[in-house]
Amino acid sequence: MRPLFTGRMAVRLLVWLSLLLGALPAFAQDTADLLPVTEAYKLSADAATPGVLKLHWTIAPDYYLYRGRMKFKGGDGVTLGEAQLPDGEKHHDEYLGDVETYHHGVDASVPYTVAAGTTRLQLSVQYQGCHEVDPKICYPPHTEKLDLPLPANTGVAATPAAGNALGAALSQLGSNTGTGTTGAPLPAEQAFRFEALAQGPQQLLLRWTMPKGYYLYRDQTTLKLQDAAGLALKPAWPAGTAHHDEHYGDVTVYFDQVELPVTLEGDLAGRQQLTLQASFQGCQDGGLCYPLMTRTVNIDLDSGAVASGAVAPELPPADLAGGPLQVSLIAALLLALGGGLVLNLMPCVLPVLSIKAVSVLESGGDRATARRHALFYTAGVLCSFAALGVGILALRTAGHALGWGSQLQQPLLVGALACVMLAVGLSMSGVVQFGASLGNTGAGLAARSGPAGDFFTGVLAVVVASPCTAPFMGSALAYAFAAPMLSALLVFLALGVGLALPFLLIGFVPALARLLPKPGRWMETLKQVLAFPMYLTAAWLVWVLANQRGADAVGLVLVAMVLLAMTLWWFERSRSRGAPSKVAVAVLALATLVPMYLLAHVPPPSSTAAAEEGVVAYSPEKLAELRAAGTPVFVDMTADWCVTCKANEHAVLDTQAFRDLLQRTGAVYMKGDWTDVNPTISAFLKQYNSPGVPLYVVFPKNGGPGRQLSTVLTSSMVEQALTEAAR
Question: pTM for the full model?
Answer without folding.
Answer: 0.43
